[in-house]
Amino acid sequence: MATPLPLMVYLDLNHWYALGDALAGNPQNPDHVTALKQFQGHVERGEVIFPLSTVHYMELTENPRDAHRERAADAMALLSRFVTMAPGSKIVDEELALELNRRLGRPAFPKKVTKFGIGVGFAFGEAKRMVLNGITEENRQELETRLGMSVSEFEASANATTEYWVLRGPPGTLRSAIPDYDPYAARRVADDQLASFSVMINTLRSVPEIAKRSMDAIVARQLSFDIIDNYTRALMSAGFVKQGPFHSRDDLTSFLMALPSRKVVTMMHFHYLKDVHRDWTINDLRDIAALSIAIPYCDVVVTDKKAWDTAVNRAHLDKEFNTPIFSSLTDLAKHLTV
Across the beta sheet with 48-49, what order do the strands follow? Predict the structure, then answer.
């Protein structure tokens, strides 16, 4: 009988902060202590994996509070064991190729992307691990004798230490002293993305005719801006060099909505945009980007209350992808107990 695969459970960063506080003995909620112990047991038994995403790394790096980063990194090291999700751009490449193949038969051999791997390198699309190369068998035996462990054990330990310090980041006293270290580099990119996204928001709020067709605007923006590079690569790999295969609004919308990650983004944007008084933030865009991968490809998702309400009560993405979505660690603990 085959061993069941572990459940992939995605946690929003605010829940990692809560678990970090519980691990440090200062829980935000008494239930979090019990939940942490339960989650740790699931991980140790190989029943659950709590993968990290690029959004976790970016947002944690930008947090200037050393203690917050340290506590969250401690919880992440304990429960994620540095398992990470593939970056959204790579997953979109796969989704595009698979859907083009399904509809048109090409590319004949669509690319496949591994969804989960190890380490920050994998999360950002460049899987790299420290490996000792170029040593003789004699050197290996001598090194293992001195270390008191095998070379593979040493490599694993060194990689785990590196991964932990990438999460935790240097303390504030060293941040300014490290050459070229810029914890806010991703934030500046996100500022540009938000400014660009705000153009669509303002247009929808100021032009009645476009406001009536908000779904068209969302789809058009994704295909012409958000995933334009991925879309162009996919069409070229399928042999569409001069002209694409889809020409009508309905065809383009149908194609985009068949891509799991884009379905999540589209529906989250659509329902968020119904609130014309909403002040959009970088965190909104990042949360949606993370959920666009987590909801289709993880087994369970725990996000914040705002995103949960939209994903479950408005967009019904939990039913769409058969992925339970919660907004609290207590609800997750109850779900994993069943």
Answer: 48-49, 7-11, 300-302, 325-326
User: By the 8 A CB rule, do 169 and 60 touch?
Assistant: yes
- Does residue 70 contact residue 23 with C-beta atoms inside 8 Å? no
| Residues in contact with 327: Cβ distance below 8 Å, sequence separation at least 6, in sequence order | 302, 303, 304, 305, 307, 308, 309
pLDDT, tens digit, for every residue of 12-55?
999 999 999 999 999 999 999 999 999 999 999 999 999 999 99
Per-block mean pLDDT, blocks of 10 residues, the chain (338 long) = 81 98 97 98 97 97 94 98 97 98 94 94 87 80 84 83 92 81 89 94 93 95 95 94 88 97 98 93 96 98 97 98 98 94
Answer whether 17's CB lies under 8 Å from 72's CB.
yes
Rounded Cα gap, residues 294 and 301, in angstroms: 7
9: three-class secondary structure by DSSP: strand
335: number of Cβ within 10 Å: 14
Spatial neighbors of 111 by CB under 8 A, at least 6 apart, are 93, 94, 97
pTM: predicted TM-score of the whole model, two decimal places: 0.93
Cβ atoms of residues 50 and 88 within 8 Å: no
Name the E strands within 175-288: none
